[in-house]
Amino acid sequence: MKTLELLASAAVMVSFAAAVSAGEPVNDPNYFKTASATVNVSEKVSDLTSADVFPPMLAARASTRNPAAIVNGGVQAWNVISNGKPGSDVSGAYASAIPGFSFNWANYSGWKKKEMVYDYVVTNLMGIDVIKIRYAVSFFYNGQDLRDDEADVKGHYITNFTVRPLETSVKWGWKFNMDVKMSDPMNVGSSKDPVAYMQADLNHVTSTPLSTDGGVWSYTVDGLGHFGDSSARSRAMTKEIGQGETLEVPQISWN
Q: Contact at 8 Å (CB) between 151 and 159?
C-alpha cells in the first residue's frame, strides 16, 4: 500500500512539473504564493587583465577638465532583466565617475576590479523555486592620474560600473523585471585628492496573475573600492529585531 502511495505521489509531481513546463494553467493557488525570498552574495577583487576593456565614452564630451568635478561618462539608467530574460541594452550599458570627458585612459593607472555576485531565489508555498536570478555588480576603481606634471592631483575614480544578469530562470506564470538607475556621481574626497562616489538603485518587480510586488536594492561604490549594500543592512537589522515576546496579561475580575 505504501509503495502504491509513493508511486502515486511521484506521478502527481511529474504530471505537475510537465504542466508547468508546458505552460498549462495551474489550479493550486499556492503555486502563485511566495513562501520565501532569499539573497546570497559573494565578493571577488582582482587586478585588471587583458580581458578587461575600458569602455568608450557614451555621454557628451566636455571642453574642460577639472579633477575634482566628477561626472558620469556612461549612462544614467538601463534595463537589466525584462520578463525573466536579459535586457536588450545590458551588454553595452555602464556608468563611470570620472574627471570630465577630455582625458586619456592611458594617463590613469592602479585600476582594480571588484565584483559582487548575487543569487536571488523566490520559493512558492509548494516548495518550488519559481524565480532563480544570478546577477553581478562590478566596477573598476582606484584609477589615478600619476603623471609627473599633475602629481598634486591624483584622485581615485570609477569606471565600467555594470549590473548584468548571469543566469535567469523564471517558471511559468511568474514574471521578474529589474532596472538600474544611477545617481549623479560625487566627490567625497578633497579637491587635491578626489574620491569618486556613486549609488545604484535596482528596481525589481515580481508579478503573478494574483499579485505584484516590488522593491529597491541600493548599492554604493567609491574610488577606493568600498562597496555598500543598504538592502543587506536592512535585512540584517530586521533579523536582529526578531519576534517580540508575548506579554502575559493578568486576569481582571469585575465582580
A: no
Q: CA dist 156 to 105, 109, 185, 197, Å?
A: 13, 10, 13, 9
| Pairwise CA distance, residues 217 & 203, whole Å | 7
Contact indicator for 194, 156 with CB cutoff of 8 Å: yes
Name the grid cell of 103: 582625458
- pLDDT classification of 195: cutoffs 50, 70, 90: very high
Over its C-alpha atoms, the chain yields an Rg (Å, rounded) of 25
Q: What are phi and psi of 113, to 5 degrees?
A: -125, 135
Rounded Cα distance, 36 and 144, in Å: 44
Measured CA to CA in angstroms, residue 237 lies from 39, 58, 242 at distances of 15, 39, 9
All three cell numbers of 232, joined, read: 543587506
pTM over 0.90: no
- Give pLDDT tens digits for 3-39: 444 444 444 444 445 455 545 546 888 999 999 999 9
Q: Residues 145, 157: contact at Cβ < 8 Å?
A: no
Alpha-carbon distance 110 to 102, whole Å?
A: 20
**3-state SS record for 208-249:** CCCCEEEEEEEEEEECCCCEEEHHHHHHHHHHHHCCCCCCCC
Q: Which three cell numbers stand for residue 225?
A: 573600492
Q: Which residues pair with 134 in a beta bridge?
A: 119, 167
Lookup: cell for 229? 549594500
- What are the grid coordinates assigned to 12, written together? 502527481
Kindly state the average pLDDT of the residues 132-154.
81
* 3-class state of residue 81 by DSSP: strand
Which one-letter amino acid corresponds to residue 118?
A: Y
